[in-house]
Amino acid sequence: MLAKIYITLKKDVLDPQGSVIANSLKSLGFNNIEDVRQGKYIEIKLDSENEESANKQINEMCEKLLANLVIEDYKVEID
Amino acid sequence: MKSHVIVFPGSNCDRDVAVAIKNISGHQPQMVWHKETSIDQSDLIVVPGGFSYGDYLRCGAMASTSPIMQDVVKKAKEGVPVLGICNGFQILIESGLLDGALMRNSSLSFICRDILIKPKNQSSVFTKKTQVAKMPIAHNEGNFFVTSEQLKKIQDNDQIAFQYCDENGNVSEHSNPNGSLENIAGILNENKNVLGMMPHPERAAELAHGCEDGKTIFESILN
């Protein structure tokens, strides 16, 4: 089973890297940029009985280590 | 007086801390490799600065799962003074001993220069001897952030240890090097026996460093 984890800064947390990327994109002529948020993407292959147990385990991993819940949100997709 | 300095792969301020402690207390601290699982009776545990585990995932995240950290957390909860400096501060946050998060500096640059700090809490075991003090910072992720509820909690409980300030002790946006909320340079836990701070007192602890203001923090704990 393959878990895809997207970790991004919470909406109310300022993302200076995202702002700089937005400015650079604008300077390249992409004038319709409204906002850029930068984050992390992690793939984890795991041996799991079913999607539900994989999901439970991945959520636990995110909460214990992969994401910092003070500043970050995460989203999990399981294939 | 027994003190311990934790050493992770990538720690690089461990020996500076040991020299400062030896010079100030007269006692040689014991260096503890991160794979150890327990620390003897201790009067002070220091989690030093550096780049533990190459700052993988998030600064301090990997180190917080090292075997020794379970005992550091246990000792901290029993009341042993624990001081985390720079990467050590990041590790203490990742271990759950301190509130908040240390984000990328607002300038997006690594900052390495002298700054000034002053204690907000003036009665803790770490801060009682320090006035406005000069010492260096050297970090990329020192931009302290907490949620507004957490900020209120640490303010109400007098947990702000140090704030960045100017020569006159004024805390202003101008004296904030990295975008930290409320100019926070260091915070304490609820019981005030754990301090995490971004500035390096061990790098301003003898005349050869050009400044000795950092000594006051060690003197406060060690004497």
Which key terms come to mind for this protein?
heterodimer; A: 79 residues; Mth169, Chain: A; 3-stranded antiparallel beta sheet; 3 strands; elongated; B: 223 residues; alpha/beta; 9-stranded mixed beta sheet; two-stranded antiparallel ribbon
Notes on the structure:
The complex is a heterodimer of chains A (79) and B (223). Chain A has 79 residues and is α+β, with helices and mostly antiparallel strands. Chain A has a single domain (2-78), classed as Mth169, Chain: A, CATH 3.30.1280.10. Chain A has two helices and three strands. Chain A has helices at 16-27, 51-66, and strands spanning 2-9, 39-45, 72-78. A three-stranded antiparallel beta sheet of chain A has the order 2-1-3, covered by helices on one side. Chain A is elongated. The N and C termini of chain A lie close together (6 Å). The mean pLDDT of chain A is 94. By secondary structure, chain B is of the alpha/beta class. Chain B has a single domain (3-222), classed as Rossmann fold, CATH 3.40.50. Chain B has helices at 14-25, 67-78, 87-94, 148-156, 215-222; strands at residues 3-7, 30-33, 44-47, 82-85, 101-103, 111-119, 133-139, 143-145, 160-164, 184-188, 194-197. In chain B, the strands form two sheets. In chain B, strands 2-1-3-4-11-10-9-6-7 form a nine-stranded mixed beta sheet, sandwiched between helices. In chain B, strands 5-8 form a two-stranded antiparallel ribbon. In chain B, 56% of the residues are buried. The model of chain B has no long low-confidence stretch (mean pLDDT 96). The A-B interface holds A 13-14, 16-17, 20, 65-66, 68, 70-71 and B 57-58, 61, 65, 94, 99-101, 103-104, 106-108, 145-147, 150, 179.
CATH architecture of chain B: 3-Layer(aba) Sandwich
CATH class of chain A, please?
A: Alpha Beta
Query: Biggest sheet of chain B, strands in spatial order?
Result: 2-1-3-4-11-10-9-6-7
Strand composition percent of chain B: 15-25%
Number of helices of chain A: 2
Largest sheet of chain B: 9 strands, mixed
Number of DSSP E strands of chain A: 3
Order of helices and strands of chain A: EHEHE
Oligomer: heterodimer
Shape of chain A: elongated
Structural class of chain A: alpha+beta
Q: What is the top-level CATH class of chain B?
A: Alpha Beta
Overall mean pLDDT of chain B: 96
